[in-house]
Amino acid sequence: MPNITIKPNLNPLEVILVEEYMTRHWPKVTHYTMTEGNDCVWVYYSNMNLYFVFRDGRIIDVQID
To answer: Fewer beta carbons under 10 A from the terminal one: N or C of the chain?
Structure first.
């Protein structure tokens, strides 16, 4: 069961889409934080940063830093 910290000001639909993406693409990552970035949803864990960019209710880009 993932342990996710979600900041309350995020769009609920975007939160669901990011959770699904993380489960599908990063299944071994079970603890991460989701917060608001610069026009994106920022997910961070350990030393990884992922930036999810949305348009029309869909993820259009994921940048990994």
So the answer is: N
